[in-house]
Amino acid sequence: MLALLDKDGKILDCNEHCSKNLGYEKNEMIGLIGPVDMVAEYDRQKAVDAFGIVVKNGINHDVPFDMMRKDHSIFPTIWSGAVLYDKSGNLEGYLVTGKDLSNLKNLENELEISQDHLKVSRLTTLGELTARLTHDMKNPLSSIFNRIDLIKMTTKEEKTIDHCNKIKHSLDQILHLIDDVTNFVRINPTKFQKNHLQDIIKNALEFIIIPNGIIIELPKDDPEINCDESQMTIVFTNLIYNAIQKLQDEGSISIQYDSDVSSHIIKIIDSGNPIPDDILDKIFEPLFTTKQKGTGLGLVSCKAIVEIHSGKLYVKNNPVTFTIVLPKNLK
After folding, report:
1. Same domain, yes or no, for 318 and 250?
2. Do 228 and 293 lie in a common domain?
3. Where would I find the Histidine kinase domain in this sequence (predicted)?
4. Which terminus of the chain has a smaller tally of CB atoms within 10 A, N or C?
5. Cβ neighbours around 239 below 10 Å, total
6. Beta-strand runs (E) in 173-305
7. Residue 112 Cα to chain centre, angstroms
8. Same-domain check for residues 289 and 179
């Protein structure tokens, strides 16, 4: 696009490509102020400043700003400008040249979409591979668990039994890490049905080794909750397991139930130290963990599952309390 401007920046002439791109007849453009009348409103000051540099320095190169067509549609451009002098060295006006970047912008958008699709494809493949690997890893670990139980049943040596318990504890940590990853990458359809809260909690406790010094208090109530039993078992397994890890070998975990007109409210309260304030808001972020042997995926999965149930999961200190809120009228 080419245009000739007078000393005040008004258009004296332009080529057909310029008028066509801007949606004007050529005669309609004559007299318009180039840096103002055909520039998008948010870029007008930028265009005026660029024109001022041409006036001051005699030239200005490759300034990007958005132009506005006659129909008020916007398109990206890049412009350069230079001063024109007559034979005597007197200022005659200015020559400005511009390039329509719409096609380039479209290519950038297409490239970005392609890259997003490629990223999604890679993540999907990685998720499938991870799910397959974690599944294959659990089989030999389960076999090791069974052999350890067999050793414990066939020996009376306290030292051997103690070693077996320590091995089982380490294996339990490995299985929990595998479950964190599996629950994060696995996408299963949610099956809603009525389930008793006590049954869900008992199912969760079956997956956890509870040290002798930790007391778990179950809720007195046993309401029916409309939920996916396997997914909610994952939530309670993670929250109780995390509390046990924090308490280590001694303390208490209280699971309490309350309700209001529209919601089930379940609280998991532990007697451990409060969560530091500087990480309290980060614990639901993917891959964030304060554990040496943690994935940072467990709480992310818990929050995602609760939100699939149209509920909320949040945490507060004094005492440390994870609260699950689930709607009663979930269909």
Report:
1. yes
2. yes
3. 132-330
4. C
5. 23
6. 193-196, 214-217, 224-227, 251-259, 263-270
7. 18
8. no
